[in-house]
Amino acid sequence: MRSYSLQASAKINLYLEIIGDRPDGYHELAMVLQSIDLVDRIDLRPIGTDTIRVRCDHPQVPPDKNNLAYRAADLLVKQFPDALAKYGGVEISIHKQIPVAAGLAGGSANAAAVLVGMDLLWQLGLTQSELQELGGALGSDVPFCIAGGTTLATGRGDELSPLADLGSFCVVLAKYRNVSISTAWAYQTYRQQFGSSYCAPEDLDCRRERLHSGPMVGQLPKDRSKIGKLLHNDLEKVALPVYPQVLQLREAFESAGVLGTMMSGSGPTVFALAESRAQAEEVRDRVKSAIASPDLDFWVANFSNTGIRIVSDGNEMKPQINADQRR
Ligand code: C5P
User: Fold this and answer.
1) How confident is the model over 152-207, as pLDDT tens digits?
2) Which residues make up the CATH 3.30.70.890 domain(s) of the chain?
3) To test ligand 1's pocket by mutation, which of 134, 183, 190 has the most ligand atoms within 8 angstroms of CB?
4) Is the CB of 183 under 6 A from ligand 1?
5) Which segments of the chain belong to CATH 3.30.230.10?
6) Would the N or C end of the chain have less CB density within 10 A of its end CB?
7) For domain 4-165+304-319, which CATH number applies: 3.40.50.300, 3.30.230.10, 3.30.360.10, 3.30.428.10?
8) Ordered DSSP codes for 44-93
């Protein structure tokens, strides 16, 4: 049986608005999500036993049942016991480049790659929608990570409407190694502080309709020069006052003359947009010397239109996954 290598893309949030409470306890969101070509590699290898094994080269990623990639494989084992009996277990090797607990959906991207790869390994023939539905049970970002690109995400982040490609922007990302922000904490704190202004449940549908004509979704594809001004993240309102290092990074990027800068998701990564790689590298160098902290890591990446990509022996074979057709 074949082995598969897959690339899983990180995402940034160009827009994150918290609209209200949902009956399931999550928040109703409006987000514009963008894949970037900062990727992890996931190798899937069949093993002769009926177990799932996870290996990871990053010390902060648990190679056990707490790993979202493990949970993705376990979900397929439970859903398709006959496939496990027929094809056997799998070893999942995760080679991390996406920073961990960073607001870049690294764990969700790994889980997405496992769903896509095991679908191939076990010849399940699942559609993209079916894979995304399984992914939604693992985490709100997993369905997006399967498809990738530029997408409006509503609901709890799992209802996706693909948007027009925004073209080739470059991104500088920066994260303090010693700072992490719990997603659950960020949303819970937001609810405590701003819950009284949430949209009433009966108005949610109408509010959702209006998103499509809102500035980020309706105007941006027509005028890409506006992108910096349209960046928005409600979770900054709770994170920036508590994490001064994140605020300091935001300010340093702003002073470095970028198109726009924002915390991604629940943080603590801050990203800045640039028109070209040369400009992005210049911004990175300027912020690096302005802050000069040994705990600060930087990455430079491009917007990408791919969530999961299948690679073999290091050679790209084909993008994954197309539309909603069975293979
Ligand atoms: O879905 P995921 O596991 O990534 O969510 C992590 C936490 O973030 C949830 O337990 C919840 O507290 C919060 N969250 C939320 N509303 C969302 C997504 C996440 O309140 N739409």
Assistant:
1) 999 999 999 999 888 899 999 999 999 999 999 999 999 999 999 888 877 877 77
2) 170-303
3) 183
4) yes
5) 4-165+304-319
6) N
7) 3.30.230.10
8) EEEESSS-EEEEES-TTS-SSTTSHHHHHHHHHHHH-HHHHHHH-EEEEE
Which of the residues 40, 119, 141, 234 is marked catalytic? 141
Q: What is the pLDDT of residues 202-232, one digit of tens each?
A: 787 777 777 766 777 777 767 788 889 899 9
The pTM assigned to this predicted structure is: 0.93
Backbone angles phi, psi at 76, to 5 degrees: -70, -35
Topology at the third CATH level for domain 170-303: Alpha-Beta Plaits (3.30.70)
- Give the separation between CA 158 and CA 175, rounded to whole angstroms: 26
Residue (of 9, 143, 135) closest to 68 by Cα position:
135
